[in-house]
Amino acid sequence: MIFININTVFKDAFTNKNVCALETILSSSDSRINIIKEFANKENINEFRKVLAKFKSKGLKKDIEDYCDLIESKYLKQSNKNDGLKSIIIKCVNEKNIKINKVKYLKDDTFSKTRVNNYI
After folding, report:
1. R_g (Cα) of the chain, nearest Å
2. Domain range spanning residue 25?
3. Per residue in 32-69, pLDDT tens?
4. Max Cα separation, the chain?
5. Among residues of the chain, what percentage have pLDDT more than 70?
6. Fewer CB within 10 Å of terminal CB in the chain, N or C?
7. Is residue 73 a part of any domain in this protein?
8. What is the three-class DSSP state of 88?
9. What is the pTM of this model?
10. For the chain, how many structural domains are there in total?
């Protein structure tokens, strides 16, 4: 019994631009996501998209395009995290509305005051 690494076969088919072999491998493989992930780690995913346009199966092509988009966005997020930038949350408080509500309801923070008074 001989074990053949499917990733090696996939890479060889890609270098030879054998569209039929690529389509057969991806359509019959249970681990097509893993194959594409490993391929994206070593090769350029945009080159694979060019070959992907030649696939006959529209459903398979759409699924793989979605996987490629997910992989690409994941790598973009990881590269953005490595920039050393921190995300900032901006909180906008309208002081005018707070003052109007205090006058309108004649109470500041009734929930916290009543809750504390009930337990003391």
Report:
1. 28
2. 6-81
3. 888 888 888 888 888 888 888 888 888 888 888 888 88
4. 84
5. 70
6. N
7. yes
8. coil
9. 0.56
10. 1
